[in-house]
Amino acid sequence: MLSFLKFNRIILLVFLSTLTIFLFFSSVSFAASVTLAWDRSNDEAVKGYHIYYGLIDTDYKANPGKTIHSADETQCEIGNLEPGEVYVFAATSHDGNGFESDFSEEIYYTVPVSVSLYSIEVSVLPSETGSIGSSSGNIDCRDNCSADFESGSSPMFSIEPDDAYRISDVKVNGTSVGIISSYAFDNITGPQTIEASFALKKYTVTATAGAGGAIDPSGKLSMAHGDSATFIIAASKGYKISDVIVNGSHIGPVPEYTFSNIASDQSIAASFSKISYTITSSAGTGGAISPVGETIVSHGDSASYGIAAIDGYEIADVKVNGSSIGPVSSYTFSNVTSDGFISASFKNVNYTITASAGAGGSIAPAGDTVVSYGGSVTYSVSPDSGYEVSDVIVNGSSVGPVGEYTFSDITTDNVISAVFKKKTYIITASAGTGGSIAPAGDTVVSYGGSVTYSVSPDSGYEVSDVIVNG
Fold first, then answer.
1. Are strands 414-422 and 350-357 parallel, antiparallel or unpaired?
2. 225: which of 139, 168, 394, 422 is 20 to 30 A away, CA to CA?
């Protein structure tokens, strides 16, 4: 409360709660100023105010530092204050004629030490792809921003990309400092800049194919976040797609696969297998084919078959895919590109026995006789009248003058021939004393032949008798 010293005592109120002190400073002079404000007095005698101030513990009330000559002027600025010093302020009201009130309550004020502020310009490129923030500057920037920081401070900035983006570079004062997620300025002494560049995240899609086919595209592909990629899987000639594995999971033998909205590394691998075909083989009675039944053969491979008849049989025919190729003992399917069939048929082996007879008889059966393997046939040898069997020759060897011969368990061709000869007789001639008979002794005569005998008596004798067969 302020009051005048003279007869007229007028009450002047200065409300400290309404006093506002503003600090201004210059980076050159570091001189500070304060502004004092108060409520206007309603006393009509008041024509102005005296402002007293000075350093603490000095006689600052000796003379007013500033005089205001209007009751309506309720604030003033006090300049040239030294930073770091403590000042005390008080006020009186005056009537313009030299009379003034008592001093108001004192106000103490410490002038802050002068601090320079420097701007740090922040840029996010492209905008809205990430942020640069600093808690010390209360800044969180997604485009172009700036904030003031005290000289000598070392503010820390954090760089944070959005989910789909990555940090591609950070520049401080125009110079790249690399791909970093935070940066601390050290003891700033002037304006600064920090710029973060963001790019869509990159992912690697690895595509591989095994032997027997291809995948397109293949290798390691760099894909941006959210991209899609389609892969075509194709088997080589003679192969088929065996399986496609995506990120370790089997999805089967598909010819195409698309990665959509890629958000991580991916992998796709295609495997292939040779196309296989079935060759079916069979054999009829009397032999075998090997291998028999169904044989699986890969595309382009070969398969060989052996055909053999059992004893007593021979290969009659071999058919491949319905067409006869003759009685072959082997066949090879080469460069197989389809299913196949092979069948073998067999027949009994037949042998020929040739029988013949010379003059004087016959053999039966005569001529060529066909006999199956293992069969038998009996031959009868019959001489004509007046003849007898001289010999029977089998396969060039004499078996003697047999009347019958049997071939048993026949396994080859044979030859039999019969030889005959006329029957012969012996005529024995003898003569008693007194003469002779010619021819004398034994005379061999063939069947049906003739022989004449002469009987001659000696001198003085005569034929007494001729006796024939007794």
1. parallel
2. 139
